[in-house]
Amino acid sequence: MPFINFTNPTLILLGLILFLLVLYLGRETKKAWVIGIMLFAFLGLLIGHAVEFATFASKGSQLYETLLACSTVDLVFIFVSFISYLWVDDIETKTGKKKSIDNSLEWFWNKV
User: Are 4 and 45 in contact (CB under 8 A)?
Assistant: First the structure.
């Protein structure tokens, strides 16, 4: 059984609320490392689910499908965390009047 089961809607909602609170904290403090911690936490969850997935042998059971769903939700949270990290990093750069090497979100907003 996964150590954090993201197939449970309550846990997904709890993870989303926690993510939004950390995003709000990062935006208000204008520190990108706050969102970076959340990004690495979701990466750690994905690695944990991948290890469980690799050590699990039977592909036809319910646990296989649960681990696959948990890994998918982990990937979605990682994507959203990464975009949020770039956004807060851009805010931090503008408020600190630091020189930015590139506009990290330019590639994203041009495609949308």
Answer: yes
C-alpha to C-alpha distance for 46 and 72, rounded to whole angstroms:
9
pTM tops 0.85:
no
pLDDT digits (tens, 9 = 90+) for 68-97: 888 899 999 999 999 999 888 888 888 887
Q: CB count, 10 Å around CB of 109? A: 8
Q: pLDDT for 38-55, tens place per residue?
A: 999 999 999 988 888 888
Q: What's the chain's length in residues?
A: 112
SS3 content of the chain, % helix, strand, coil (to 5): 75, 0, 25
**Number of other CB atoms surrounding residue 86 within 10 Å:** 18
Pair of tokens at residue 31: 């520190």
> In this structure, what DSSP letter does residue 93 have?
H
